[in-house]
Specification:
Elements (H helix, E strand, L loop, with lengths): L1 E6 L7 H11 L3 E5 L8 H4 L2 E16 L9 H5 L5 E3 L3 E3 L9 H5 L5 E16 L2 E8 L6 H19 L3 E5 L6 H7 L4 E6 L3 H16 L4 E6 L5 H13 L3 E6 L4 H7 L4 H4 L4 H17 L1
Parallel strand pairs: 1-8, 1-9, 2-7, 2-8, 9-10, 10-11
Antiparallel strand pairs: 3-6, 4-5, 6-7
Length: 289
């Protein structure tokens, strides 16, 4: 089973548009949405949830009111200022870092550490194939751990079903969730745009994938809106021995498809951008095969 991670370096380059279309045109695959901090691929894929699981990561403090005497020791010790005191102490969950100092030093043993529920992960069926995705809670952290969980569950399910491809929607940027999504990947498809910020952030992702020695292929979205910017991206890729395998034109059909909540290739199969996306997949699958 070959794993392809779709990255962007920054938000708004067209990564979700590409992922939605790949979900339609790639045969014999399983899909994973590892952009857990801002998951939106499900909006295009119409998943029917088959399994829903809790995502638990780390611990958080909780006061046992019947034991608390209001001595204030925990308030003094909490460097995160997560505890307030009225008649008894109260821990604000969004501020608690789960360090455990309050529970350790509480003279009445009135604070306990409990597992922290951070969100959910799902196994779903879509019109385009099996789909593993997640929902991180508001203000919750540990998204890198959730990314690894989603990827591993997708690969396990894909192996059970005998799939050939795992197509992964990664997070923008180069942070922990992106690094987690790269683990075990066979290739990266990097979607960029012909702007100075697109060039800059593409360069950062290329440094990251070079560090992990993962073959990376670039696709320039809306290249015809700024041909000079697209040329700058191509020159940068040439200097770094990175192949540019696609140029997607600006196409109003993309917006029309998004408004209807559908992948563009499913509604406008013969539009210029759909044809270009299919060519990108033909090139990428040929190289990896």
């Amino acid at each position: 089973m070959k794993e392809i991670v779709v990255l962007s370096g920054k938000g708004g380059t067209g990564k979700t548009t590409m992922m939605g279309s790949l979900a339609v045109i790639v045969p014999d695959k399983i899909i994973a949405d590892c952009d857990v901090d801002a998951a939106d691929l499900h909006l295009l894929l119409e998943p029917e949830i088959k399994e829903k699981h809790d995502f638990v990561s780390g611990v958080e403090a909780e006061v046992i009111p019947d034991k608390c005497t209001g001595c204030g020791t925990c308030v003094e010790l909490c460097k995160w200022e997560a505890i307030t005191l009225d008649e008894t102490a109260y821990v604000e969950p969004l501020d608690c870092e789960g360090c455990g100092v309050c529970a350790h030093f509480c003279p009445e043993e009135a604070i306990m550490l409990k597992d922290k529920h951070c969100g959910y992960w799902f196994k779903s069926e879509t019109p385009y194939g099996p789909f593993v995705h997640a929902q991180l809670g508001i203000g919750e952290e540990n998204s890198g751990k959730l990314v690894s969980l989603v990827k591993n569950k997708a690969k396990e399910w894909g192996e059970e079903l005998g799939k050939k491809w795992v197509i992964v929607d990664g997070a923008p940027g180069i942070g922990c969730p992106v690094i987690a999504s790269l683990s075990g990947a066979h290739a990266v498809l990097l979607i960029t745009e012909p702007t100075p910020s697109g060039l800059h952030d593409m360069g950062r992702v290329l440094e990251l994938t070079a560090h992990f020695k993962i073959p990376t292929f670039v696709c320039v979205n809306k290249w015809d809106l700024h041909p000079e910017g697209a040329k700058a991206i191509e020159d940068h890729c040439d200097k770094n021995n990175v192949a540019v395998i696609g140029h997607l034109p600006y196409d109003p059909c993309v917006v029309k498809a998004m408004v209807q909540g559908k992948p563009v290739v499913s509604l406008f199969a013969d539009s210029p951008v759909s044809v270009a996306i299919k060519e990108v997949w033909q090139k990428l699958s040929s190289i990896l095969s």
